Amino acid sequence: MLRVADRNLERSSRGPGAELGAFLRGRRDRLSPTQARIEPFPGPRRVPGLRREELAVAAGLSPDYYSRLEQGRQANVSPEVLDALARALRLDDTERAHLHDLAAPGPQPRSAPARELAQRADPGLLRIMTALHDVPVLLLDHRGDVLARNALLRAVLGRPLEPGSSFLRYLFLDPVARERIVNWAVFAQAAVATLRLEAGRRLHDRKLHALVDELRATDGDVAAWWDDHAVRDYASVIKLIRHPEAGDLMFGIETVSPPHEPDQRLTIYTVEPDSPTARVLPILASWDADTADLS
After folding, report:
1. Domain of residue 84, residue span
2. Alpha helices in 13-92 (DSSP H)
């Protein structure tokens, strides 16, 4: 397994074109000629996915041009070419947007150090969080750093998750997360896919990519899921918690990002009305309050 420094060196030697090529290669390997609705080229096949030449023809490109794309040697890829590739690869809307992000990363911002300072929680989102005191709520930035959380979130997850801490480090590096989240693998794999989407949107965010390198180097699951090149946007997901005192809890995780603050997202642990989880949450909240009074 590569050390963090090795991964930083590996990533720094790759430009945005290499990230685009790796994504195209990963999606091509997963698509058979039958799925692409094209006639397979004759000759023995070493892999089940599409050959470069087959994808090039399906997208209406020359094989040489497409080869340069996968090798990271083709600059200024037009939106029309990207859309043709997205259609040929049967990409969904999130994957299509990710493809465009990788192809047009923009110039390196001059004020990167200032831009990477810690964010301040949006006041409007904090007011919403206050109103949602009866369910666990977490406010994160685009790197997964905690900007705010309520007491019920702490009681459910079993960790303080103070502002400034990393939710992703908790999820992947803290053994309590794997013990308490029953469907940890499903939830964690989705987190990696959304992290890859954020990394594609922000190819010049050094702190974000350093976090990716750290997690890949220290957790084999992250490394495997990252290399799969799957991406997904923030969407509803079920999270199952096994609480040591309250028993099994089930939440629907919903995410809200206001248009004026797209780098922050409010993560709300919703519950079905009158469900066992809804009935036990007030008890958990009272236990947490009692613990706080004794500390």
Report:
1. 4-103
2. 16-29, 33-36, 52-59, 63-70, 79-88
